[in-house]
Amino acid sequence: MEQFPRHVLVDWARSEPRIRALFVLGSRAKGRATVSSDLDLAVELTVPEDEQLLTFLDNRQRWREDLQRVTGMRVKNLDLRGMSSAAGSGVEVYRR
C-alpha cells in the first residue's frame, strides 16, 4: 500500500507560493499506515518569520481542504513546522 501520494503532494506544494517545504508526519511517515489512517502534514513557509503564524492561520483551513480534495485522504493535522512536536520526525516530500 502506498503510504502517501508523494507526486500529488509535490504538485500541490509547488502550486502554493507560500509553501517552502512540506512534510508527512505520523503513521504514514513511519510506513505503518492502514487503509483508515489519516494524513498528518506540516509546512514551512516562505514569508518572513514575524508573518508566519498569521499567514498559516489565514490559510490553514483552505490548504487542509485542498489537500483532502487532491489526495482523497482525510487530513487530520496540518501544522506549522516548529510548532508541532511530531514535525521533527516527519518525511520531507517537498522543498522550494
Structure description:
By secondary structure, the chain is α+β, with helices and mostly antiparallel strands. The chain has a single domain, classed as Beta Polymerase, domain 2. The chain is built from three helices and four strands, in the order αβαβαββ. The chain has a four-stranded mixed sheet. The longest helix is centred in the middle third of the chain and has 20 residues, at 52-71. It is globular and about 40 Å long. The mean pLDDT is 92.
Provide a concise account of the structure shown.
The chain has three helices and four strands; from the N terminus they run αβαβαββ.
Notable characteristics:
26% strand; 96 residues; 4-stranded mixed beta sheet; alpha+beta; 4 strands; Beta Polymerase, domain 2; 36% helix; 3 helices
Which secondary structure elements does this structure contain, and how are they paired or packed?
Elements: H1 6-15, E1 19-25, H2 26-30, E2 39-45, H3 52-71, E3 75-80, E4 91-95
Parallel strand pairs: 2-3
Antiparallel strand pairs: 1-2, 1-4
